[in-house]
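no rush on this but wanted to send it before i forget. theres a chain ive been looking at and ive put its sequence and its fold in token form underneath. i want to understand how the tokens follow from the sequence so walk me through it. thanks a lot i owe you, the record is right below:
>
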Amino acid sequence: MTSNVLGSEPAQEETISSAMIFLLASACGLVAANLYYAQPLAGVIGAELGLSAGATGLIVTLTQIGYGLGLLFVVPLGDLIENRKLIVTTVAMAVLALVSAAMAPHAAPFLIAVFLVGISSVAVQMIVPLAAHMTPNAIRGRVVGSIMSGLMVGIMLARPISSVLSEFVSWRGVFWISAAVMAVLAVVLYQLLPRRVPDAKLPYSALLASMAKLAANTRLLQRRALYQASMFSAFSLFWTVTPLYLSGPAFRLSQSEIALFALAGAAGAVAAPIAGRLADRGWTWVATFGALLAGASAFLITHIAPEGSHLSLALLVVAAIVLDFAVTTNLVLGQRAIFTLGAEFRSRLNGIFMATFFMGGAAGSALGGWAYSQGHWAAASWLGFALPAAGFVFFLTERGGEKRKPKLG
């Protein structure tokens, strides 16, 4: 960077160093992983803390609720508060939340702690707009894509890593280790991030009110959020259902084998920088067309071979990679698109965008579990196909004139 203080847009055609991109991508992956460490350990945690089988689901649900609320009520502060201070404070909050989870003597304080883990994990959605501010428009897609690849790797590796670590240090140790990592990260970010003071001088209540106007009046935001909601709902359905499917009578895989399956799916994260480059070259429409089509097709290829065969397992791995590739591609295309709408709105636009498709993901998880209970993989996979297919049909109605700058008046 040429300066350690940023305005709303880079004053010149500044470049962001490879080291800074790596730092921001790593930070996003490490913070996002906090959302998922508890998922494969929920049964063990619930048993130790006295949660019933039904109440154990609250561990994941409250984390997701916290993240969703953080997207709507904390991320927009990036348009109001100096960004480095906001990011470091939020990561420090994650340290306290993770320590509280590790020390929780019973269920109630643990559930409060994971709710706060969810809220603090929105730091990743403050880092991405800051990266956009640090980058000239010509390479913004590539940079955002590279950083989002770190986020996706963190999401995909969190579950298998926590499963392996818990064998050696218990589930509490997983939270202690993550807290230590977040503490180090907070110090590093404080030392290395540039300061960025937003131009907005709104009171917080006016900032939140403006989000409703942005959501109602910004056609590009609406479309990109709905495209990604259709994709992320399919993604969440897939990763909710496949562990059940793989451990069931068709495949009978162990938990360690299912963890290896999840690792294979992480290969889809390589899509992020590719998608960013495509967007920078003006190929957003074509890339979105391909991403939505690939997302739907991923479910179709799982029906080619007889269920339970080696070929069907191999095709399921291919489907995981294709789906992750498609979802990541569409995510980067969407963020690259909304970041062109105005620097002064970026944090609010990103919060609305992420919250919308996150709700789609929550719906996909719930619908996937229901569909699998009703008709096993056949029902769940056809529902998974229908979600991005619906997004694709909606995409085909896209018209020009949707890139106008938002109006709040």
